[in-house]
Design a protein that fits this description.
This protein is an alpha+beta fold. Helices cover about 55% and strands about 15% of the residues. Helix 5 crosses helix 8.
Amino acid sequence: MNIFSFLISFVFLKVSTYNIINYMQDLVITNEYIEVAYSMNNITTKDNVVVANGLEHVIKQIVKKSQQGSLGVLNNMFTQPDYRLDNDWNVCKEKQTALRDEIQNELEIAVPQIEDKNFRKFNLKSLAAKRRSTTTKALKNILDRAINYDTFNLIHESILLDTEAFENRITQTLAGPEEEISLLMMCHLIALFMNTKSCDCSWFYIKETEAHSDDTCYMLYNDGSTTKTYRKIEGQWCEVNIHTNFLQPLKEQLL
């Protein structure tokens, strides 16, 4: 290797290392924002909307704006911030900044104080794990409320109530605190939650989702061949596999 090639390699390594350390700094700061948001319960937003939890509200607002297809940005924000989005740490930094801005805008919180500013002692995997430890709980709570009705009880009530009364009961039950969640939002939220459950979702994770009008969510993993399918069956969300006759209610996977 000549001296010119060596110098180029040295400069590239130095810049790359700087970018990663700078990005880890962003993760530490964003994690603090997330912790503050998650600690806020039963609050009123700037738009005078009463919400159960600050972080859950922010997640729903961001997911609501997302389009069908790739989960890249959402994964970077909530499940795998240690994965280099678009092969560029600067792109990842932009998404972390966008997440902090959304938290700040929606919840009007004070900028969190970072006690330990020695960012070199951190590593991406531990920071990502810390992120997931909080976002997992928030996503679970959102999904819990979205499916917060007991199909068995509804069937039992159908025997006891007349048709009109039963239809009113169904309407009241389904129109819970998460009634604004669309099919596409539900697909995204399920996929994000499943990614947080992975021991190491940086190498195997749900990459894309597709919502179909028959209340079905198709999910594709990053290996390009593994899939998951969720479908709403008689009012209950379930993971299904028509090839193996597998069926498991989503609420069991949230336990």
